[in-house]
Amino acid sequence: MASNDEEIVFGADDEPVKDTADSAAVEDAAASDKVSAEGAKSSAEAEPVEEVTEEAAAADSAASELEARYMSLYAEYDNYRRRTQKEKENLYADAIATVTKEFLTLIDNLDRAVDGAKKSDESSLEKVIQGMELVERQAQDTLTKIGVEEIPAERGTKFDPNLHDAMMHIDDEELGEQEIAMVFAKGYKYKDRVIRHAQVQVAN
After folding, report:
1. Among 89, 148, 150, 180, which is most exposed with the fewest C-beta within 10 angstroms?
2. pTM here?
3. CATH superfamily of 151-204
4. 150: how many CB neighbours lie within 10 A of its CB?
5. For 187-198, what is each residue's pLDDT tens digit?
């Protein structure tokens, strides 16, 4: 039989269970486990925050690098644009200077021809005409030298709207349909580019 100092508690299985002071220790252990679990949970929650911060820093770094590359490319393009514009201006100026230089001798001869015509009389008229013809040939040679060609537009040439400008139409039994009858002004082209269309009279 149990002594009077020991309390007997019967459970569901009718077996005696000792109710001792160990229950306090169990509660302390449970509380300690709860604190540990909460601490572990806090640590687990803190890790993703740190990862997000690192990703944000990496994204900021990549954005800064892209911005720097963009600014570098923009500056390079701006320099290229300015340089190209300057080269175009210089090229145009060089072309003007080259063409003008070729025509300076022609202009000199025209001035001489005009002065000679002013001083001429009926006896020297033939010499004036010869001088003007010489200047005309020189002008044609100058155009040929810089690559400018006269557009064919002799009488009987087939009319081409890409090269000729029809100023008027006439009926001419000597010519075929859409053939040039007369040239009012010569046309010129540089390679495949028409500088001025030949102004012509078209038959039939």
Report:
1. 89
2. 0.55
3. Head domain of nucleotide exchange factor GrpE (2.30.22.10)
4. 13
5. 999 999 999 999
